[in-house]
Amino acid sequence: YSFSWLGGGKPQSGGALTFPRGATWFLSFHHPEAVRRVLDGILRDPEVAYGMRVFEVQEQAVPHFSGCYHFKVAGPVLARARREDGSREYLLWDDPRAGEALTRVLRHKLESAGFTDEHLDATVQFDQMYQGARTKLVTIKGISHKASLCPVVVTGTPDAVRFAWEVGVGELTGSGFGALR
Predict the structure, then answer these.
(1) Which of 4, 79, 175, 180 qualifies as a cystine partner to 91, CB 3.0-4.6 A?
(2) Distance CA 138, CA 129 (A)
(3) Separation between Cα atoms, residue 139 and residue 137, nearest integer Å
């Protein structure tokens, strides 16, 4: 699964955010039963955090994907490589190795979900033509991660591209990284 960052926030003094017109947030799952469990939980208890509550839930129809799709990102994309000493190196949008890392993670997730054969030929690359790419430092549970805000191009079977849209790309998609729209 993956989830986006909150949309619609306006910065305030002291680093706070306000959401004068409400916030938008989306969750995406590969397994329909997970969607149902989350929706049931939201309907049972619409309180989220910090005084926010869910007022409306909309289900988005699944787009019709072809073998290649350009996605905007709804959160920073995290790509890393393992160094020889076992430590991890962050790979940003302009590093040629980033696409290899994103592809490796997507293929692993596809395989874990039961995909085989040509589905495992899927690839992910940062859109190198995008002029507004930038990096973002994100701290979660005291750990700082360096990630990229840059659209991605996913190539593969329509089912593999749809899977990427459902689960996101890169690492830590369950922590707010790599959601696609």
Answers:
(1) 79
(2) 24
(3) 7
